[in-house]
Amino acid sequence: MLYSLRMLLLALHFLLVGAVGLIIGLCRPFNPDNSRVFARLYSVPAAWLMRVKVKAEVGPLFDHPPGCVIIANHQSNFDLFLIGQAVPRRTVAIGKKSLGWIPLFGQLFWLGGNVLVDRKNAYQARKALQKTTRVLQDDTSIWIFPEGTRNPAEHLLAFKKGAFHMAIEAGVPIVPVCVSRYARRLNLNSWRQRTVIVRSLPPIATAGLSQRDIPALVEQCRSQMQQCIDRMEDELARR
């Protein structure tokens, strides 16, 4: 009963934010700060409805000026509701082209200046990546999930290299953002409040690196994120 009620309320909330966000987006289309506004509209009420306390420890991310590549782990479709509070100003995201067809949300994603990529079309994918370089050089950050798919497991999947190509080509730092493993513990049929930690790590400079440095950079980022996620899980287990 509680699960059904929550899902209904979340669906209504999703539609309401879509309608309100559409008005905002049409008033200031492609503003690079739209995504942050939309993310908070989605996240803050939804986290309350889900009885989730989001503990955002993202000082290194918020303190860094716009113009970086943000990489984060991706667990479920609820990510938007839980980590939206950690999106900094002037940040856009990269998403698959099919997101653009979701009613209201797809239009918000587009009006937010986010980049839609057709992964099945190599030419269009390359053009989208070229666009991201221009975005980064325009003092705007890009948020990307380097695993490339949802992963609720304990260990991160192998990272795809696109985010690292972008950062090196634009000469901007990478800021890892780690989210504690909530997907398997989330119970929408319970009144019990649960805590999700979102923690950003210090920026990793890419200035002076070349494409040959990408494998080592990928492994450095993945290793740091895995260690951070493991630490957060230990902290939550001790509570």
Protein topology:
Layout: H1 2-27, H2 34-49, E1 52-57, H3 59-63, E2 69-72, H4 79-83, E3 91-96, H5 105-111, E4 115-117, H6 122-136, E5 141-144, H7 162-170, E6 174-179, E7 194-200, H8 214-237
Parallel strand pairs: 1-7, 2-5, 2-6, 3-4, 3-5
Antiparallel strand pairs: 6-7
Mind explaining what this structure looks like?
By secondary structure, the protein is α/β, with parallel strands linked by helices. The chain has a single domain, classed as Glycerol-3-phosphate (1)-acyltransferase (3-Layer(aba) Sandwich). The protein is built from 8 helices and 7 strands, in the order ααβαβαβαβαβαββα. A 7-stranded mixed sheet has the order 1-7-6-2-5-3-4, sandwiched between helices. Strand 3, helix 5 and strand 4 form a beta-alpha-beta unit. The chain is globular, with a radius of gyration of 18 Å. The model has no long low-confidence stretch (mean pLDDT 91).
